[in-house]
């Protein structure tokens, strides 16, 4: 990849821009957007928008702005979202099921989401072999086989804190590259594995500072 | 407050430090921790740990480190988590219920969490007036009264994207100060309102970049 060294802070903002462009495409037939308007809708300053996008090419024209459809396609390509990405979720509890429903809804409604949940994993023999929300539940002991078979690159971990590290290890050994962690612990992973933190308890504690 | 100008990036890391200290207090009787060890467990460099904490006072001793119990209490005070903070959740769907369960479990198990979910809100007449997970469900039209009565400062929004901005407006008018938003839209709020983004779709899209 030619943009190996781009900071994660930049990458974090790309999905925000993509969401704005998606909304524009669905709700209006607006063809151009200025960095000012794109920034305002994404909650980012216009200079930073221009700087972020400049990492990946010359997408805009001075005084004209960005072409909505073109930039949207480019962002999808950059984020690998121009193809379906198979993902799995581990932990078929109430949180896991709710996340699955939410995930499937996003996949259905949002063409730029493109992360398709294809498998569930659990350790409970009563759940293994069943279908939940239309998705098969496998045993965690089948991780290696299923990750290969279904071409899974990413897992969401929605198991209790005590089990999360072990689950992460199993799936890293099975070959996944990214983890979205809902469990309230900090996972230890090799450098080449990317972890997203979806632990909203931390976010609530941050907000508590401001009240 | 004397630490008005501290950047949000610093505030974001405080709950990570607090979590490490909480785990140490529960699992060990370790009384001191170096900035190196605290940083390693929190996933932050040791120099940054020292810099972050220095904003709030002289908590550590050179060559000795931080007192675990003392620093833990100080962080709780800084984050306002030395008192119970009443929060509400809007949207009693499957995501809302799963988040409520998860929230109550955190509140139960984690003494530094201290955000107590005291109310649910919905617009569905079939849900209003019922009790879900032990918590009363009120109508969104009662927001102003209930926010005052229950001293609610923060709401979690778990309604569909289409309704999220309106819900945010209602609760901001009712007097809340912080929002944790699970809906996949960027909320427009006045400057004095703090919003946390708990939209995991964005986080998955970011991870897709790396695979």
Note down, in words, how this protein is organized.
The model of chain A has no long low-confidence stretch (mean pLDDT 92). The radius of gyration of chain A is 19 Å and the shape is elongated. In chain A, 45% of the residues lie in helices and 19% in strands. The first copy, chain A, contains eight helices and ten strands. In chain A, the strands form two sheets. Chain A has a seven-stranded mixed beta sheet with strand order 6-7-5-4-8-9-10, with helices on both faces. In chain A, strands 1-3-2 form a three-stranded antiparallel beta sheet. By secondary structure, chain A is an alpha/beta fold. Chain A folds into two domains: 8-78, Winged helix-like DNA-binding domain superfamily/Winged helix DNA-binding domain (Arc Repressor Mutant, subunit A), CATH 1.10.10.10; 85-204, 3-Layer(aba) Sandwich (Rossmann fold), CATH 3.40.50.720. Chains A and B meet through α1, α5, β9, β10 and α8 of A and α1, α5, β9, β10 and α8 of B.
CATH architecture of the largest domain in chain A: 3-Layer(aba) Sandwich
> Mind describing the biggest β-sheet of chain A?
7 strands, mixed
Query: What sort of overall outline of chain A do the alpha carbons produce when their principal axes are compared?
Result: elongated
CATH level-four homologous superfamily name of the largest domain in chain A = NAD(P)-binding Rossmann-like Domain
What's the structural domain tally of chain A? 2
Helical segment count of chain A: 8
Cα gyration radius of chain A (Å): 19 Å
Give the % helix of chain A.
Answer: 40-55%
The total of beta strands of chain A comes to 10
Question: Distance N terminus to C terminus of chain A?
Answer: 44 Å
């Amino acid at each position: 990849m030619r943009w190996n060294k781009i900071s994660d802070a930049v990458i974090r903002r790309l999905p925000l821009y993509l969401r704005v462009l998606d909304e524009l495409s669905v709700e209006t037939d607006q063809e151009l957007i200025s960095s000012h308007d794109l920034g305002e809708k994404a909650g980012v300053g216009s200079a930073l928008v221009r700087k972020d996008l400049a990492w990946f090419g010359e997408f805009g024209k001075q005084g004209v702005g960005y072409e909505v459809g073109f930039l949207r396609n480019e962002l999808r390509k950059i984020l690998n979202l121009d193809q379906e990405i198979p993902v799995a979720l581990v932990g078929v509890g109430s949180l896991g099921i709710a996340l699955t429903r939410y995930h499937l809804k996003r996949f259905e409604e949002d063409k730029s989401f493109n992360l398709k949940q294809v498998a569930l994993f659990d350790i409970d023999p009563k759940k293994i072999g069943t279908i939940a929300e239309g998705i098969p539940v496998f045993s965690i002991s089948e991780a290696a086989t299923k990750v290969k078979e279904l071409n899974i690159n990413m897992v969401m971990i929605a198991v209790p804190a005590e089990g999360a590290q072990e689950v992460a290890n199993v799936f890293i050994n099975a070959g996944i590259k990214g983890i979205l962690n809902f469990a309230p612990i900090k996972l230890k992973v090799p450098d080449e594995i990317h972890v997203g933190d979806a632990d909203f308890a931390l976010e609530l504690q941050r907000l508590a500072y401001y009240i």
